[in-house]
């Protein structure tokens, strides 16, 4: 009965330790996501963020206007 029964008691603490690690990991992910969201909001409010957004919008507008029904690649048969 010696060591084999001791394994039963140790299993509970391993499960508890695993649960604590899982909760700590979830908390760390939540804090990381919150920090990333704050950085994104600060970037969007900054001059660099506004310039980047304007550039992306300009590129999207140019892309939409540059290809009005024309195929991108034209094949020539010789």
UniProtKB/TrEMBL annotation:
Residues 16-78 are annotated as: Disordered. Keywords: Lipoprotein, Myristate, Palmitate. InterPro entries: SVIP. The keyword Coiled coil does not apply. Residues 16-44 have a biased composition (Basic and acidic residues). Transmembrane segments: none annotated. Pfam families: SVIP (PF15811). This is Small VCP/p97-interacting protein.
